[in-house]
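Predict the structure of Multicopper oxidase domain-containing protein.
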Amino acid sequence: MTGALAIAAGLLAPTGHAEESLECGPSPVPAFFTDEARQLPVAEPDAPGHYTLTARLGRHSFHSEWPAVPTLGYHAPGAPVQYLGPTIATERGKPIDVTVVNGLPPAGTPIFPFDQPDNDNNITAHRHGGLQLPASDGVPDPIQPVIPPGGSKTNHYPNAQAAAPLWYHDHDHHNTSYHVYEGLAGFIPNTDETEAALPLPKGDFAKQYAIQDKKFNADGSLCYSHADPEFLGDLPVVNGTVAPKQTVEPRRYAFTLLNASDTRSYRLSLRQTDGRSADRPAMTVVGNDSGYLWRSAPVDELLIAPAERYVVVVDFTGHEGQNWVLANNATAVLGAMNDVDPSGGGISQLMRFDVGAGVSSPDRSSVPAVLVEDAAPVSALVDGARLRTVQAAEVVDGHPQLGDRDRLYKYLDPVTETPQLGSAEVWAMRNRSPDAHPIHVHEAAFRLIGRWRVGQWDSDGLPVPGTIGAFEPARAYESGPKETFVSPPGYITAWVGRFTIPGTSVWHCHILSHEDGEMMRPLAVGDAPQTQLPVVRDLSGVDRLVREP
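Done. Here is the predicted structure for Multicopper oxidase domain-containing protein.
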């Protein structure tokens, strides 16, 4: 199957691509909280159990004051989208096939005047958090082939996993950050009978928000660069709209929050337009990347790093006629998890919720204190698991890499992470770099164990004995099934999971600028026992082994 696209005059960038990193911003600033936040359309199957997504060049307006500008988007029959992609809703036990068509211009045709490394216009399609074979995981080349312009590939998703707020995005090596920024991303949530039975808000009262930061040129067109090498925007964009408003009723809503930004993390809270937070609507986290929490977690603030997803119930009951801003006080580039910047690193407000006067129907939803989850508890996963030590550090300032216990590697270096099929492993990430990294591991669901602060690293990059602090368990809101983990600098962060899918995929930092550099490594799940790794019996054993050099 092939895809084609008629290229309208004026959509393409000038011939040739930038040889040097360009500088972006500052952006023109439109009126905030003017446009209503949109929900992405839901795709319908074009055959039983089959969907088609076509990556295409389009035009999208990020604000009603601005003209439509060139963007990328995924189109599905009956659900054309100019920026981002339609939502594909899947259900446990009901496999589907998704044919991904590359409708981008021919190789050698520049699309955007960015500093992209090539104009090949290849794509892949990764179902982030999905448990599918590597051949359908959309991993970058050379592990799996790319989809060239005019080509297509069909991915099979067995959907043999619990309900979770999954998403999909391009994963073309060296171009992931550019393609996601340009629009190649969307939601693909999985549901099941357990989720359907929960009394949480549903239907019109359950919404999904893809949160990004961007920079724009004076004409409203996108600007993007690896000049720093990370990218930080100066305007918030939610589901493709700059600083939108969302009209809500005075009742409970379930919000799926996805951080689809390149580099920026957010610490989110609700505040009135004058900055006051007193008597704010209650926020309760009920879901993580890969499923529901065992116990719901009330929060005043929520830290969300790139690629993380949280399902949050917000209760607007009793707030009739009020306006509440989704505020941010995280630093622009996340360091320590508790670091605060009142200016939000240049983006202190993301969107506004305008609460109406009444409800359209009775609100019979509730937030159970205990939720039914599908994942094994940490204690069960740890028993008999082997501990694998990995690391993040910088050889050259500003260019982080990943490695095993002993050294750092580049993406195409021989594989060093080789879990045995069916086994459980604890991964202990030693972060010696100056930044926090959201580490994403493909092809498995995990549970965060916790973190240890390291007071000093020796000249070989090992933690100095006696300087490792007390164990800090996972925060309540991040205690559910996950596959993306905030790994702060100067810490050892540990998670545990079982590898049930054979083959070679990847693990990487989900700061997309880092991922497109060399902060990605192959992950090969096979038959070889990992007897070189120590066996963990319980959490005290994890604590003891983590403290060893």
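The mean pLDDT is 94.
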